[in-house]
Fold this protein.
Amino acid sequence: MADMDCIIGKWKMVSSENFDDYMKALGVGIVLRNLANVATPTIEFSKGDDDTWTMTTSATFRTVEIKFKLNEEFEEVTGDGRKCATTFSFENGVLTQKQVGKDGSKNSELIRTFKGDDLTTVLKVDDVVCTRVYKKV
């Protein structure tokens, strides 16, 4: 297993492909989709003393913070308000976030691949795939 410390730091989005279709597939409304489509988020990963990780996603209109431990399920309320049973795993520079939707919301998966100063995130729901690329800042 590659050292998870490679994810520590801030990452600024530099490109996004198919994000609107991804949000539509999740059932996100037009107003929130329009706001999210023009945002250029920054993601920051940090590690606490007790193997708890924090992922903070900051955009113009909203900041969302998630605290997690690897391979431990927790309830997440996503940026678009969905409730999910979420689990993070890490292997060979890849951080995978599996979201199992509650209350009728859809399942989704976010696969973050870290290579040096590059972070590529692939978001999947149903048959829709979105790719977002970040650079370390």
Summary: DSSP finds two helices and ten strands in the chain. The helical segments are 19-26, 30-38.
